[in-house]
Amino acid sequence: MIDINKLRAEPEKLKTGTQAKGIDSVVVEEALEADKKWRELTGKVEKLRAERNTINQELKNQRTEELKNKSVQLKRELKDLEPRLRETEEKLDEVLRQIPNPAANDVKVGKDERENEIIRKWGEPKKFPFAIEDHLVLGESLGIIDVERAGKVSGSRFGYFKGAAVQLEFALVQLAMKTLVEERFVPILTPVLIKKEMMGGMGYLEHSGEDDMYVLDKDGLVLVGTSEQSIGPMHAGEVLSANDLPIRYMGFSTCFRREAGSYGKDTRGILRVHQFDKVEMFSFAAPEKSDDEHEFLLNLEEEFFKALKIPYQVVKMCTGDLGVPAARKYDIEAWMPGQGKYREVTSTSTTTDFQARRLNIRYRDRGEMKFVHMLNGTAFAIGRTIIAILENYQQKDGSVVVPEVLQKYMGMKVIKRK
Question: Which domains does the chain have, with CATH numbers?
Answer without folding.
Answer: 4-96 (1.10.287.40), 113-415 (3.30.930.10)
